[in-house]
User: Which sequence fits this backbone?
């Protein structure tokens, strides 16, 4: 049997950029990605060592198709040579050399041109030297030399062996020591070649000092002449130095000339910039002896006198600037290239930093008014999950574009666009700030033709309809005055004390705003030329302003309409304190009064719809305006059949609906089911969602006619209420998705669909509605907590891409989130949710326009495309503690999909789908696709368990958290999940963990009283206080109930119980604990066929006896992993692993008959006893030293048999299994276990180790099989592809291994 590594998502520990391609170190492998982010090749660099760093040779020493690189991890280092200008990219590896200490940094000798010629015809030697710095400040030199004719031979060998990497002869590389190690302990270092013979070293110690020194290497006849000079020792950081970067170029600083800078970062969360003393090749800089002696004292960090004395060896050296950034430790910092333009002074460079908070921060260096250098924060990029960005690199393209590539602990790779705020402004994203004075001044320079957008041809009609609009009573053109509306167009400036009030979008990039003084302003994009340059050079702004009209009636109390759809119609409505409603049409520039309601207008909700009337090729455009009044008991709804609303249409389709008590409207969605039936869905501030059913009479011969509601529905009450979506929080937006199968019911009128909603509880929800003529029923299918919030304000269903977009606020930032790919698309610092704002997403979901008020300043941000791109998607950002494979597939998008769930210390549960076909070619997912992220736990996940049919997922964690998730399919989101119930029982012990659980369907209770649609489970839980508790859980459409049925205590020593298992076909519960014992509890008091609801409704839990049948030692200490498989009725194979590094194979026999079972005293046979109705015996075979560390995860798969002997009883058949074990030693081992059931105890058990491989997953905590059957005779397809009644066929099993990352291994 072979064990093959297939796919992995593990932390990205090293990244590098070369000629548009990306080299990524993940685990012990090197991956090469193309410029368009497709995986080209993968090479295993080290046997069992993670890659920590990658450096590339200078562009002058490489070609466009090949590059030399050095790869290191811990003490191991290798040369490599990569070539991509062929059909199959090649990576050639040099010898694996081992240094005497950890390697922190390396740098190619880019200033020496000896031996770097490429001459394949003559086979000239190729030589490269690379200095390395270690964790004790020693300098090493790595040299490599090879011949091109050897490359040709290796290439031929590669083709014959069908591998993508070939090692170069070991005699061609060498590693020598240049300088001896010192007493200091370094956490970071950086190297820079100053000349052909001098290299500059910046070393950051564990105690907060930065040592800057150089090494001069001169080749002589006697050998290399090496001289070391210390230049600076900087103090100031209050923690260990984790990142250092020397500027590769001299930087001009005001009144100081050009200087070389050093950037540092630390666990004190600060970034500091230092000026390094001038270093040249003449060795003129030498520190005084007394300062050198003090520096030597400081190397250990334990000398208080030295710590209080900052050391700066040169008058022109020292700290220039300091900034506090990140929420936790900062791991690395880089200089960004600075640019200069003709006739301008060169700019200071930028900075980028990454840290433990999984963010990438961008900074600018600038000079303040006093000429001092300051660090200014530009933006924060948060596109990794969990904690830690472990690697980062700068990618400079030939066109001048600068990107930052980062790799996180979540296994994802992100490309961040780096922008210089002064010279590199990207017109794809604009940000402007406007005061009232700025707007007033801009209106003098902009003309109407510059800012007036062209009308949409498909939204207007010519001829008599246009004339009718102009002839409406009360209509006022934009360039005239209307006395009956108290409106006035004038050219005098806006009042200086005026304030921006509401905003509403009328086109994708245009919006109107109403001021406090009653002035309606229009903001539209200013004209650009074909190159994207602003045509209006006087203002240099991307937005233009136009004063539409002044309303005296709207002073100090106006309300703008709020669009209910992301793409609003080209019009807006304005409500006044007197109840007047005005309409602004942007196509024609008209303003008119269209309606009058009772009371002050408090809310206007505008919805646009398209409805097919049944006439081929004809679509009816419908506009719905819903009006709410302050303190009113009713809401008014107006309908129009076109987007250019006239008062005639509004008055003829008026509906008045009664609101429930204390119902404050916050959102509206108008749904047209057909020409006669409508739904008006109304969200409230704290009372849930009300659904009104509106019926209209059918008008023969005119499919466009919209008639008033029929008698009795003009002032109707809600038909249905939804109160379980967002609790007592406001419902902020609602969307509707029709069900494709709608109308297939037996009733005369039957419609169904999916109602999407967002709320200020930080969630979005999906209800499935079934609408009949006289009733509406609903089912909550999906409710998810989003990673931002709690103010979730809107959503968009992108039908073209099948994506779901949501937006809202996280702290002081506005966030646009793509839920389908679980990725943040847009983030804007705005000050928070408590302000006037409006947002309109772009059609492709790449951004949009966001406008908000901050300190009476109108801010406009327009994003046309994101500032980042995912090269590869990842998984959890913390250690994965639990994994569970769904036992049954689920229909998603018309396909049967197999998936598994993982739970981690980041408190998230992720549901993955694994596609082996994409494991080698997909760069974004590497075979793994995250279908859903469940966020509700407050602590790390302890255990996961699926129900037998895969429709329920149970999860446990700290603080006695036990959640029940109902899983099903739904459109757009794919897998729909909702937390159906939470364990209601809590003890008085703080931070009590539910360490594991097991469940089984309670068929006895289910068949007696419960309905067929109900699900009843017995759930056993082990707790960290050594107690066992069993609960009965029933799920039905009428609600969920819990009952505490059994409880028991393991003993007075409070041993933490780690696992529990219901033994198949038995009333026995088995537990494993921290003392190495297996204990069996007899749950003998089960309900009989006559026992019905009293079993679920009993008040007191029954106490389990402390020992039931058996308590036997298996391991010397904690049992960390279990896997079991039934052998026959009453016999179970149990495989266990513990802290004693041993592997236990146990045979468990249990019987329901009464009476004592004879006890056998050999070591292989544990004592047996009976208690109540179940009798258990246990026999164990222990394999010592199975791993060199604790065994933390076990999984096994049965081997099918093609041969059988009919005359032999089933107990004489030899059972065979393959077991896979994982340990903290980062080894994966496979075992073949053969069991002869005809022999007593474990006498018939044979164990053989088959494979021993290294894994990239550290701290393995769990594993599970993705397939359950292996045939010894053949190997072909997956078990999931077999016909239901087919005989066992050949298949290869896959095992998913989880810890710090996850990976899949294939057993062939």
Assistant:
């Amino acid at each position: 049997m072979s064990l093959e590594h297939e796919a992995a998502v593990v932390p990205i520990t090293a990244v590098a950029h070369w000629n548009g391609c990306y080299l990524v170190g993940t685990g012990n492998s090197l991956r090469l990605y193309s410029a368009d982010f497709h995986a080209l090749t993968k090479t295993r660099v080290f046997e069992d060592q993670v890659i920590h760093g990658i450096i590339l040779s200078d562009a002058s020493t490489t070609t466009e198709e090949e590059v030399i690189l050095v790869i290191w991890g811990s003490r191991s280092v290798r040369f490599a040579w990569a070539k991509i200008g062929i059909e199959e990219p090649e990576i050639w590896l040099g010898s694996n050399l081992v240094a005497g200490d950890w390697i922190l940094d390396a740098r190619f000798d880019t200033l020496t041109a000896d031996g770097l010629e490429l001459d394949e015809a003559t086979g000239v030697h190729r030589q490269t030297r690379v200095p390395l710095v270690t964790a004790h400040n020693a300098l090493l030199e790595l040299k490599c030399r090879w011949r091109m004719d050897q490359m040709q031979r290796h290439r031929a060998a590669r083709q014959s062996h069908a591998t993508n990497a070939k090692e170069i002869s070991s005699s061609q590389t060498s590693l020598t020591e240049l300088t001896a190690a010192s007493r200091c302990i370094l956490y970071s270092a950086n190297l820079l070649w100053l000349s052909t013979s001098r290299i500059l070293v910046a070393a950051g110690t564990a105690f907060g000092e930065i040592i800057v020194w150089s090494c001069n290497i001169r080749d002589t006849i006697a050998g290399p002449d090496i001289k070391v000079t210390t230049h600076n020792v900087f103090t100031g950081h209050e923690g260990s130095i984790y990142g250092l970067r020397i500027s590769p170029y001299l930087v001009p600083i005001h009144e100081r000339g050009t200087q070389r800078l050093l950037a540092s970062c630390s666990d004190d969360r600060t970034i500091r910039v230092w000026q390094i003393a001038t270093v040249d090749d003449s060795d003129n800089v030498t520190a005084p002896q007394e300062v050198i002696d003090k520096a030597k004292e400081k190397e250990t960090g334990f000398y208080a006198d030295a710590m209080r004395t900052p050391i700066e060896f040169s008058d022109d050296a020292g700290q220039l600037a300091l900034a506090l950034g990140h929420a936790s430790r900062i791991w690395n910092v880089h200089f960004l290239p600075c640019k200069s333009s003709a006739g301008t002074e060169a700019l200071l460079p930028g900075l980028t930093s990454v840290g433990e908070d999984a963010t990438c921060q961008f900074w600018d260096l600038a000079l303040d008014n006093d000429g001092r250098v300051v660090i200014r924060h530009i933006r924060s990029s948060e596109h990794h999950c969990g904690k830690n960005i472990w690697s980062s690199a700068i990618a400079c393209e030939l066109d001048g574009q600068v990107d930052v590539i980062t790799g996180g602990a979540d296994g994802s790779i992100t490309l961040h666009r780096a922008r210089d705020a002064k010279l590199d402004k990207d017109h794809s994203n604009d940000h402007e700030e406007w005061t009232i004075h700025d707007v007033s001044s801009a209106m003098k320079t902009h003309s109407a033709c510059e800012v007036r957008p062209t009308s949409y041809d498909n939204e207007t009609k010519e001829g008599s309809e246009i004339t009718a609009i102009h002839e409406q009573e009360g209509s006022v053109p934009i360039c005239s005055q209307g006395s009956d509306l108290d409106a006035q167009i004038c050219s005098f400036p806006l009042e200086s004390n005026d304030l921006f009030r509401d905003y509403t979008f009328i086109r994708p990039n245009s919006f109107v705003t109403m001021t406090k003084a009653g002035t309606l302003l229009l903001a539209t994009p200013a004209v650009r030329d074909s190159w994207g340059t602003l045509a209006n050079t006087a203002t240099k702004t991307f937005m233009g302003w136009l004063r539409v009209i002044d309303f005296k009636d709207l002073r100090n109390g106006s309300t703008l309409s709020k669009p209910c759809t992301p793409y609003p119609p080209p019009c807006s409505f304005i409500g006044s304190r007197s109840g007047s409603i005005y309409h602004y049409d942007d196509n024609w520039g008209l303003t008119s009064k269209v309606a009058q309601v009772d009371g002050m207008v408090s809310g206007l909700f505008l919805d646009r719809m398209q409805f097919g009337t049944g006439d081929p090729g004809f679509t009816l455009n419908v506009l719905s305006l819903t009006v709410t009044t302050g303190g009113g008991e009713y809401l008014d709804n107006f309908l129009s059949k076109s987007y250019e609303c006239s008062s005639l249409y509004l008055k003829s389709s008026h509906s008045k609906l009664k609101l429930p008590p204390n119902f404050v409207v916050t959102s509206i969605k108008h749904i047209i089911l057909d020409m006669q039936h409508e739904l008006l869905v109304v969200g409230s501030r704290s009372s849930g969602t009300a659904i009104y059913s509106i019926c209209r009479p059918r008008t023969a011969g005119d499919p466009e006619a919209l008639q008033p509601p029929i008698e009795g529905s003009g002032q109707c009450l809600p038909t249905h209420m939804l109160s379980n979506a967002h609790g007592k929080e406001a419902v902020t937006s609602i969307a509707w998705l029709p069900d494709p199968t709608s109308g297939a019911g037996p009733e005369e009128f039957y419609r169904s669909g999916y109602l999407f909603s967002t709320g200020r509880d930080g969630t979005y929800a999906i209800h499935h509605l079934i609408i009949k003529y006289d009733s509406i029923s609903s089912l909550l299918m999906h409710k998810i907590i989003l990673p931002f919030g709690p103010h979730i304000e809107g959503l968009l269903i992108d039908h073209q891409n099948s994506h779901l977009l949501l937006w809202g606020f996280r702290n002081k930032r506005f966030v646009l989130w793509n839920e389908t790919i679980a990725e943040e698309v847009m983030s804007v610092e705005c000050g928070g949710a408590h302000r006037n704002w409006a947002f309109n997403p772009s059609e492709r979901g790449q951004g949009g326009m966001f406008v908000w008020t901050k300190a009476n300043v109108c801010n406009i941000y327009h994003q046309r495309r994101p500032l980042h791109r995912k090269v590869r998607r990842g998984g959890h950002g913390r250690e994965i503690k639990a994994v569970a494979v769904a036992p049954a597939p689920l229909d998603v998008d018309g396909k049967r999909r197999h998936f598994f769930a993982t739970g981690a210390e980041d408190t998230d549960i992720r549901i993955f789908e694994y596609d082996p076909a994409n494991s080698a070619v997909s760069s974004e997912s590497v075979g793994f696709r995250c279908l859903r992220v469940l966020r509700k736990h407050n602590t790390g996940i302890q255990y996961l368990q699926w129900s037998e049919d895969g429709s329920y997922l149970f999860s446990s964690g700290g603080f006695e958290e036990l959640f029940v998730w109902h899983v099903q399919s739904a459109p757009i989101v794919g897998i729909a999940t909702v937390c159906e119930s939470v364990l209601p029982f809590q003890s008085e012990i703080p931070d009590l963990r539910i360490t594991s659980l097991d469940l089984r369907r309670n068929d006895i209770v289910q068949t007696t009283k419960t309905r067929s649609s109900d699900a009843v489970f017995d759930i056993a839980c082990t707790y960290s206080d050594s107690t066992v508790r069993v609960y009965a859980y029933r799920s039905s459409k009428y609600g969920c109930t819990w009952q505490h049925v059994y409880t028991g205590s393991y003993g007075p020593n409070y041993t933490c119980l780690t696992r529990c298992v219901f033994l198949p076909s038995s009333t026995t519960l088995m537990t494993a604990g921290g003392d190495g014992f297996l204990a069996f509890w007899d749950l003998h008091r089960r309900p009989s066929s006559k026992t019905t609801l009293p079993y679920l409704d009993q008040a007191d839990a029954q106490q389990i006896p402390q020992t039931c049948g058996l308590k036997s030692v298996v391991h010397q200490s904690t049992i960390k992993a279990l896997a079991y498989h039934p052998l026959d009725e009453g016999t179970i194979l149990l495989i266990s692993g513990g802290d004693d590094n041993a592997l236990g194979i146990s045979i468990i026999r249990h019987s329901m008959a009464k009476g004592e079972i004879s006890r056998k005293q050999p070591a292989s046979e544990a004592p047996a006893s009976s208690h109540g109705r179940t009798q258990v015996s246990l026999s164990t075979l222990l394999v010592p030293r199975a791993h060199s560390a604790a065994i933390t995860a076990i999984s096994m798969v049965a081997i099918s048999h093609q041969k059988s002997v009919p005359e032999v009883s089933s107990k004489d058949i030899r059972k065979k299994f393959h077991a896979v074990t994982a340990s903290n030693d980062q080894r994966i081992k496979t075992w073949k276990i053969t069991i002869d059931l005809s022999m007593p105890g474990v006498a018939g058990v044979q164990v053989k180790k088959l494979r021993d491989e290294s894994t990239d997953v550290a701290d393995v905590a769990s594993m599970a099989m993705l397939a359950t059957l292996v045939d010894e005779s053949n190997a072909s397809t997956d078990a999931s592809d077999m016909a239901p009644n087919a005989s066992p066929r050949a298949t290869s099993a896959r095992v998913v291994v989880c810890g710090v990352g996850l990976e899949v291994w294939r057993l062939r």
Remarks:
- The longest strand covers residues 1293-1307.
- DSSP finds nine helices and 95 strands in the chain.
